[in-house]
Design a protein that fits this description.
By secondary structure, the chain is an alpha+beta fold. It folds into three domains: about 50 residues, Structural Genomics Hypothetical 15.5 Kd Protein In mrcA-pckA Intergenic Region, Chain A, CATH 3.10.290.10; about 80 residues, 2-Layer Sandwich (Pseudouridine synthase); about 140 residues, Pseudouridine synthase (2-Layer Sandwich), CATH 3.30.2350. The chain is about 15% helix and about 30% strand. The chain is built from six helices and 16 strands. Strands 6, 7, 8, 9, 10, 11, 12, 13, 14, 15 and 16 form an eleven-stranded mixed sheet that branches. It has a three-stranded antiparallel sheet with strand order 3-2-5, with no helix packed on it. The chain has a two-stranded antiparallel sheet with strand order 1-4. Strand 13 and strand 14 form a beta hairpin. The longest helix has 10 residues.
Amino acid sequence: MQENAELLAFLLQSVKGEGRNAIKAMLSRGQIAVDGKTQKVFNFALKPGQTVTVSKERIVEAPPLIGLSILFEDDDLIVVVKEAGLLSIASDQESELTAYRQLNAHVRLTDPSNRIFVVHRLDRDTSGVMMFAKSERVQQELQNTWQNTVKERTYIALVEGQVKKQEGTISSYLKESKTLKMYSTSNPTDAQHAVTHYKVLQSNRNYSLLEVSLETGRKNQIRVHMEDIGHPIVGDKKYGSKSRAIPRLGLHARLLAFLHPSTGKLVRFETDIPKLFLNPFKDGFIPK
């Protein structure tokens, strides 16, 4: 361009066959660049010698992720933090927003043939770190070698009552009832062995905050085992909780460390303890 001008005025003069509203829309959609840099400000001051580029292609912006944030992404994996309340994956018949559905849309922005594959799940009301594979090969490899590949899998659990034993291990066989509730049994027939280790981080008369590590990853394992020792997870009505000290389930997948399927290197993803979980240990706390 030859002289000083505001971007919108320059475009109205230079772009033939497009009205004022159409050009404004192109600006807001990121179709205008100044010296190769996208510019959306209508009154951006142009200087002589600058190059203005108009793209007829509409820029596709990634939809915002809801209840989800990406910690890490490469050609093989996506590691995310899921908020409590978001479903990991739904059945084909359900149209509910899920982590799986949102991440599928995310990877298809770069290539419509891309998709993601479920490696493991978190319950809807459990928050924390989880990962998805970007190919069936990586998914199968991770699932088939899960016990050896995953080096650390640590949860934070807010439970009812004061856990007297500072450290402990709970071991049982888990089965599922006809009402889809998991329960512990000493009979290994048609059941899955489950081992949970815990350590008390903080406690008072009414609540305990535990660090829980899984030796096995069974459905609802921590929830069942906490009920088994008489300290159900806060907010977990299904597994014996009577308390609503916080407005959600008191379970958070804090840490996931594993050997990367392609590089073989140990990767580690850790999140903070949810602030809500610390409320019962503050002076003046009144449980709901």
